[in-house]
C-alpha cells in the first residue's frame, strides 16, 4: 500500500499563496477534497506565473521542473487553464516549495536549497528531479530528514 502524506491546513494555505491565492485560483481550498476538485477542474494558468515569480525561475526552468514542454505552458497561458495532469504537476511543485519554506523558515534559504546540488539526492538539485512523482517524494523525504536533524 502506498504511503500517503496529507498536508496540514497550514501547508494548504502555503500552496495556495505560492499559486497566487484566491485571486488566481478563484477558490480557497482548505482540505484534500477541495484541492482534488481544484486540480480536476484545472488550475488557472495564472498560477504558473505566480509560482514562477515566487521561486524566481525562468519559464524554461519552470517547464523543466514541471515536466511540461515550454510551448505547452505558453499555450495554456493563452487558453487560461491547465489540464488536470498539468495542474497536479503544478500542485506537486508548489507543495515541495511550500514544504521547503516550512523547513528552512526562510524563503531565500529554501530557494537556495531547492536549486543547489544535493548529496542526499545523488548530486541532483531538488528542482531538477521534482518533475517525477518519485523525485518529488525523494525531495519531501529529504526535507523531512532535515527537519528532524537527520543528515541530508
What report would you give on this structure?
This protein has 10 helices and no strands. It has one domain. The protein has 152 residues and is mainly α.
The overall average pLDDT, rounded, is 93
Order of helix and strand elements from N to C terminus: HHHHHHHHHH
Low-confidence segments, ≥5 residues, pLDDT <50?
1-5
Structural class call reads mainly alpha
Total count of helical runs of at least 4 residues:
10
| Strand tally | 0
- As for the number of domains, it is 1
Q: Biggest β-sheet: count, sense, barrel?
A: none
Q: Determine the strand fraction and express it as a percent band.
A: under 5%
Give the overall shape, derived from the CA principal axes. globular
What is the rounded distance between the termini?
26 Å
Range of helix content: 55-70%
- Give the radius of gyration: 15 Å
Amino acid at each position: 500500500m502506498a504511503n500517503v502524506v496529507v498536508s496540514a491546513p497550514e501547508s494548504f494555505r502555503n500552496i495556495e499563496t505560492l499559486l497566487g491565492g484566491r485571486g488566481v485560483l478563484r477558490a480557497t481550498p482548505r482540505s484534500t477534497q477541495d484541492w482534488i476538485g481544484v486540480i480536476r477542474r484545472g488550475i488557472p494558468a495564472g498560477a504558473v506565473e505566480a509560482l514562477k515569480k515566487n521561486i524566481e525561475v525562468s519559464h524554461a526552468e519552470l517547464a523543466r521542473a514541471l515536466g511540461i514542454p515550454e510551448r505547452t505552458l505558453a499555450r495554456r497561458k493563452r487558453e487560461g487553464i491547465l489540464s488536470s495532469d498539468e495542474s497536479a504537476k503544478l500542485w506537486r511543485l508548489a507543495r515541495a516549495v511550500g514544504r521547503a519554506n516550512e523547513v528552512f523558515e526562510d524563503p531565500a534559504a529554501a530557494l537556495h536549497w531547492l536549486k543547489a546540488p544535493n548529496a542526499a539526492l545523488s548530486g541532483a538539485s531538488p528542482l531538477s528531479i521534482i518533475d517525477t512523482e518519485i523525485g518529488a517524494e525523494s525531495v519531501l523525504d529529504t526535507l523531512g530528514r532535515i527537519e528532524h536533524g537527520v543528515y541530508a
